[in-house]
Every structure is written in structure tokens, then in C-alpha cells.
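Bench notes, afternoon.
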Amino acid sequence: MSAAPSPAVAPLDFGHGPVELEAFLEPTCPYSKRAFGKFEALLAAVGAENLTIRVRLHSQPWHLFSGIVTRAVLAASATPDGRNRALRTMAGIYDRREDFEFDGHHSGANMNRTPTDILNDISAIAGVDLSEAWKYDSVGRALRWHTRYARQMGIHVSPTFAINRIVEPSMGSGESVEEWAARLGLPVEAAPVA
């Protein structure tokens, strides 16, 4: 008797335009948080019909719970309304970074937390129990895909951006939405929402 196939992992995309911005983000990185917080304003400024933003999860080992948190985000994307749930989960994790990070990347209260503690906290953020989705083969495959793809692209830090699959090493989270639009070669159609 074969096991039922696990639900697919939803792509973490914004917009649907021909210009593609890939954002390699780590789910507890403060600079990734800053970039993630600008995506909707960027789409509003340039038009969702002109740009597709693809979030690529990039786990980094110095963020000690990174692998667990990254897999939990992917598990959220394999639940009903997966894309939206996963993106809301990422936003919630960014809002509560201190619950998933260590002091100086090596100490603090989180030293006593278990992977189950972390998964339970992220389930609360997601608004759904992720313990079953956590085990899906599709989630494991997606985690490996994100990791391999980032390595193939030569990604080392977060956030890193690629425009139409070409890495833009000087593009950063500290730039304005208008600066991002200029890099993308897209006119600003509407004033970005702060």
C-alpha cells in the first residue's frame, strides 16, 4: 500500500509580470526582514502586471534555528491557502525574530528551546498546526530545492537579489523602492506606500 502524495508546496511569489526579481531571504535575518517589508510597496509602485517577485528561502547556519524556521515556512506553504499563509508566517516570524534567534548567534534564552518548541510557535503564527505538513515529502524536496538553487546561483548572504536570473550583488535592502524600480528598469506608476 503506497502512501498518499503530500500536498504541493506553493510558490512564494508576488505579482505576475515579465520582469523577475528573485529575493533570497533568510527567515530570521533583520536585513531580509527589511527587504520583505518593501515588496508590496514595490509592486504597488511599478504594477503587479509588470513584475514578479519570487521569494527564495536561503537558510544560513549562523542563524542557529534557520533550518527549522525555513522548513516551517515551507510547511505553511503546503497547507490550504499555502502561499498567503506562508507569506503571513514569514511576516510573523520577522515580527518576533527574538523568539527564533540567539544573542550574538551563540547564546541566550533560546539555547533551551527544542525544534518542537519552535515548530509550535510558528504553528501559532501560521494559524494552523504545521506538525503534519512538516513531515511532507514535498516540504523536504522544496527545502533541498531552495538550498541547491541558491548554491547554484552563488548566493552566500541574505538578502541577495537577482534580476531576470542575474545576481545583482550591489542591490540591497537599504535602498528605496524607487531605487529598486530603477534597477529593474521599471517606471514608478504610483507613489510607493511607506
